Request: fold
Amino acid sequence: MLSTKINKYTSMTAINLQNQLAYIWDTLNRSLFILFIMFIFVQLWAAVYGDGGSPDREIAGLTFVNVIWYLLIAETMELGKARHDLAISEEVKDGSIAYRLVRPYNYLVYHFFHNLGETLVRMGLVFLLGLPIVLYYAGLPQIDWWIIPPVVLIMAGGMLLDFFTLSIIGLLAFVTEDIGSFRLIYQKLVFVLGGLMFPLDFLPNWLQGIARSLPFQLTTYAPARLFVRFEWSLFVDFLGMQLLWLAILGVILWLQYRWAVQRLAINGG
Amino acid sequence: MNNLRAEWHFIKGLFALNLASAMEYRASFWSQIFGMVLNNTIMLVFWFFFFDRFGAVRGYEFPDLSMLYGIAATAFGLTMILTGNIYSFMAYIIAQGRLDYYLVFPRNLLAHVIFSRMHISPIGDVIFGLVLAFWFIPKTPAAFGLLAIGIILAALIISAYGIIAGSLAFFWGNAQNASQQMLGTMLTFSLYPDTLFRGAARVLLTTVMPAFFIGAVPARLVKTTEWANLGVMVLAAALSWIAAVAIFYGGLRRYESGSAINVNS
Reply:
């Protein structure tokens, strides 16, 4: 019974993965932004660290190479996201959510697994496209390869957290015509308090304290920071915070979803 | 002369209609504007902390970057409010054969296409950009005059670049994503200090993708009141528009009607 349920959802992931691979040029085209933004970041941080990015200079414990690799991982997390909040909002606005709700699957779980296929392809492409620039200007990362599994675990937690937040934003379409502003504000909070533009370690101490207690850092800063400077204590901190925020946002999402479904009125056939 | 006046009245009419239509949903209208102001403010907060931590970077300090950001946001906002079709929609209209709708009107085709859509959230860009620019501008009449001229010229360059990007659909077919990426990339480069880029990147960002003319050059023009910068900007705007008009009407010769019945929304 359980395996049938799981198979149903993993098939959704597989189908969307195939779709993305079938239209790989389109996906590639939409991922090209990483080339430009990584080029800009390299120029910016090379200027900060001294011309060419002095290899030994450390700022807040991070070298030029650390920062550039940090930004590649953080951008991979951000640009690799599938925008299912828009899909939910469209379904709410055009009424097709009613059609989805009667199908034999959970609406939100469907979106998660459907998204997963697209996210995996996009994240892979963004990383691979940004990689040559990073290798050319910064070289290989100074890491131990055994850290990859724990970093991937934190990445997965970050993706789930991001899914919860974007689902909450998507379902806001029940109360507001346009969710674009909410999405934009969330994105920009991830930019600054989530450490997408630079590691939180560069922020003033008082703001670091605030940023570290919020969920935004757990989707981008956490995996990127662990990748460039792995510490077990940091890993445990991030994992604990992710579980806490998953519980909080999960309850909010569940209540909001229940409220939205009850509010839904279907007329005609 | 009469023709020009008629086109001007027509464009004013389009603007009034677009605005009335956008304001029908008041809550959405104001939330989009407020969202954009907040969005830009958060980005500025990043730059504040950046300069607070690292000081000047290649000659740029926080006030310089703020002026650059204010001018670029205002110019981009004005372009998107007035000529909203240039941001990816133009490529879509051409690729889908929807240009038929515009071709049958006894109006200037390019003007009709670009002025037919208005975006709401960029009003927030303009409000944010003007407040920021006024905050950091040298308080002299010349600087205020040059700020207005700089913003208009930057907006002209953005719209010309948008027309060029959208016209790619005449040659490539489905160029909606590409045109959106071209405009988005130019805007991204325009929001960073121009002194970061050297060599070939610098040449590209002043010619093929004229990002420096959106923020860095007009910001320097306002700060230093060097007339040479104004001359360069006028030249860049003129050349951009000559290229845009030539590419649009050159591409139009390749246009094939979609013969489809469209309802414009």
User: Anything to note?
Assistant: The radius of gyration of chain B is 19 Å. The longest helix of chain B spans residues 141-172.
